[in-house]
Sequence to fold (527 residues):
Amino acid sequence: MILDWLQNMGKSSLNFFRKIGQFSLFLFHLLSGLNYLFFRPRLLIKEIYSVGVLSLLIIIFSGLFVGMVLSLLGYVTLVDFGAEGSLGVLVSLSLVRELGPVLTALLFSGRAGSALTAEIGLMKATEQLASMEMMAVDPMKRIIAPRFIAGIFSLPILTAIFILVGIYSSFLVGSLWLGVDEGSFWSQMQSKVEFQHDLVNGFIKSFVFGIVVTGIAVFQGYTATPTSAGVSEATTRSVVHSALAILGLDFILTSIMFGL
Amino acid sequence: MPNALIHITDLYFSRANREIFSGINLEIPKGKITAIMGPSGTGKTTLLRLMGGQLIPDRGDIIIEEHSIPSLNNKALYKIRQRMGMLFQSGALLTDLNVFENIAFPIREHYDFPETMIRDLVLMKLEIVGLRGAYRLMPSELSGGMARRVALARAIVLDPVLMMYDEPFTGLDPITLGTIVTLIKDLNQALGMTSVVVSHDVKEILSIADHVFILAEGVVAASGSPDELKASDSEWVQQFLHGLPDGPVPFHYPAPDYLQSLRDMTP
Fold:
């Protein structure tokens, strides 16, 4: 009984490290083929449209509602202390440091990451990747690399849009509906939000999340078992692993950037 | 064989703890149509993958035009693949490109030809497979047979030296099947290619092959010209060629005595 348990533990640990090694080799292979994209910028633009531009709607609407909710909740707390003028600071720091990068990355993994995994997994299942290899075209360069770079490029921009929409919607709720003074809303935000400490760190977070989410998505697609069930499992794994990685990394990054 | 394009010597390959090849030796003559036959699961498609360098054997060598495929580095492998064509069983067309762009894909990837030249090359290949009128269609709009003909046009667009066909006759109606059989034969003659056809459709393949290898249980069980095989006195070869349900290859999976099993009430 205990021996079985130990055996299973050992097996799972070995599998975990094998996956990590496989993922590192995959990233190495991926990065070594990036020069291919310099000669084919159109491939990258097409993928940026597909993973970035097509994710705009969900990002804008989510930013809108998150900003409005933050404004309402923040106001209810602040007004008790007569500090409702700081609503802008509360909302903008929450969004820039934490909610913007994390929520956008989670939404992105659900909207674009899952689609990337399913697309690449299905290309594998229908032998499109194998046929490309036989046409002497490396699918890692032609299929995986443009999607990976497009994801890394798109996520920070989507995060910025999410934050902007969130701040503006919180202003609309706070100022027009709840009656917070417009001047103190913006001026306190301007004086408290720092470029280096807040904006740059927020950007670094979203950049790291971009690498992780898109990396996991393309890796899961590329290593999916080439069957319907295999692609379905890979898509699920892509979203679950991305969400866990985003939240875990967020804790580490926050403690380095703002905690210590 | 003096005029062989491919030499396979002492090839061993296993996957998921199951030995698929245990010492295969065969030579594929240049400019001819060679058929690789055998029951399902004997590793016919695996052999094509090994020849294309998509799988690495456990032991043994595959030499194509004096290059040892398993020991080539990635760059050299991709270089030699430009001289190979492969028709996949599913066609494997790129679903986001239309017929024209699918066939133009290998040209665009490897050469910097002017658009007019690409257009002419693609239309010439489409004319050969009889689908010039379908150049605008998307893969989802094609029937199975049409998709396979488009895939064939794409595979031959760079005029390969070696053309590999993976089960080209499976799941086709009699008319399309006849078309594909004729195309394989005509293309082999017109373009001077060496063709390797993996199939278990006995009648069709024997009508066009110059040489046949039958694989079974990890080795070459029989080989020769179609006439030699038809005249073979091996019970195994006769069972396979005539599709007899029982013979040296048993119909039943090994099991205890039937009556005894029924009496025991256990499966």
Q: What stands out?
A: DSSP finds ten helices and ten strands in chain B. The radius of gyration of chain B is 21 Å. Strands of chain B lie at 4-15, 18-29, 33-37, 59-64, 67-68, 84-87, 162-166, 194-198, 211-216, 219-224. Chain B has a mean pLDDT of 86.
